[in-house]
C-alpha cells in the first residue's frame, strides 16, 4: 500500500457526508491543511470498527495537537451507512466518515 506524502497530488474526488447532497471535493477539503486520509473496506465491518476507525477516534486529540486539521475515513458505502456508522462509533466530531 502506498502512502500519500507531503507534496503528492491527490486526485479530484467527490466525497459525500451524511447525505448525497452534502458533497465536497477532497482537494477543497484538504487544501492547505495537514490531513489524514484512510480507507476501510466497509462500514460496520468488525475489524474496521474495532481497530481502524476506533484507533483514529481514540487518537484524534493527539493527532490534532500534532497539527492534523482533518481526519477523513473513506469507504465505498453510501453516505447514509457511513453517517450511521460514524454516529454509532462516536466519530462525528473527531473523524469525518465519507463515501468515495
TrEMBL record:
Function: Thiol-specific peroxidase that catalyzes the reduction of hydrogen peroxide and organic hydroperoxides to water and alcohols, respectively. Plays a role in cell protection against oxidative stress by detoxifying peroxides and as sensor of hydrogen peroxide-mediated signaling events.
Protein known as: Redoxin domain-containing protein
UniProt xrefs under PANTHER family: PEROXIREDOXIN, PEROXIREDOXIN-5, MITOCHONDRIAL
InterPro entries xrefs: PRX5-like (IPR037944), Redoxin (IPR013740), Thioredoxin-like_sf (IPR036249)
Domain Redoxin: 5-97
One annotated GO molecular function: thioredoxin peroxidase activity
Entry keyword set: Antioxidant, Oxidoreductase, Peroxidase
Active-site feature positions: 48
UniProt similarity note: Belongs to the peroxiredoxin family. Prx5 subfamily.
GO biological process: cell redox homeostasis; cellular response to oxidative stress; hydrogen peroxide catabolic process
GO cellular component terms given for this protein: mitochondrion; peroxisome
